[in-house]
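Appendix B. Extra example for self-study. Work through it before the problem class; the solution is given directly after the inputs so you can check yourself.
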Amino acid sequence: MSSEQMGSSWGFIEEGWRKGPWTADEDRLLIEYVKLHGEGRWNSVARLTGLRRNGKSCRLRWVNYLRPDLKRGQITPHEERIILELHARWGNRWSTIAQSLPGRTDNEIKNYWRTHFKKKTKNLCGNSEKSRAHLWKRQQFQQQQQRINNQVDIKNVMSLPTMPQAKEEMAILYPNTIDQQEQVGFFYSMVNNSTSMSQSKPSSSSNEDIMWDDLWNLDDFYGYFINTTTCNKATPNCLQTMATTPAFY
DNA sequence: AAGACCCGCAACCGCCGCGTG
DNA sequence: ACACGCGGCGGTTGCGGGTCT
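Solution. Structure tokens for the complete assembly:
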């Protein structure tokens, strides 16, 4: 599509199909169609409703905007963490990730990732070898510290009122780990480090960076965690449990 | 006040997999 | 086995509003 088309003539007709932003009338027609015929058979929308939109456009509009079960509003910190976790596991498989976040679309998650996380990656990846080495060294240090403190962490974490449930969820996710307790303790201490840091100085941008730094370490950790365990077959449904369980915090 | 810049989001595109004839 | 159509997915684009300078 040319920039000219995207400019003044946005909302134009090409090969009989309308393009560009949807009008309220078009939305209404599409909603009526779905009410009558259900989702699917998108290519027949135009024929049956007179809507001058192609099937793909109709499907996209319905899935990303008109579906009644869509959750509006900002991504919550809870959801944000789930996105991080799932992205570490699945990569850019947005639809898979979206399955674990009821009411959120793959497009929404994709957009959120790009605007909120990608720039952080860019910052990290764009840094010099020196800073990467620094990051790596820092991770090694943190991991070493955590291994030392694991026993204490496990005790502390287990004493949290919400822990048994979370522990169960981790057990579902990672049923065959060699030393599950150790890894669960490690994981929770990572999470706690991140959240306590963000809670203590929420308005400071530099501290926010530190928090993100830690979240990325957490992200890396997930990759490490998943790669070093034998439980790669855990389904997204398991993570949905996490997404819908407030106790996970 | 105004232009530059940034961010969030809706929408499009190309590709791929699956079902069907 | 092959071609074709459709739906789904991930990547990308560009608009519009907000913020910064």
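Self-check: The CA atoms of residues 64 and 108 of chain A lie 8 Å apart. If your reasoning did not lead you there, revisit section 3.
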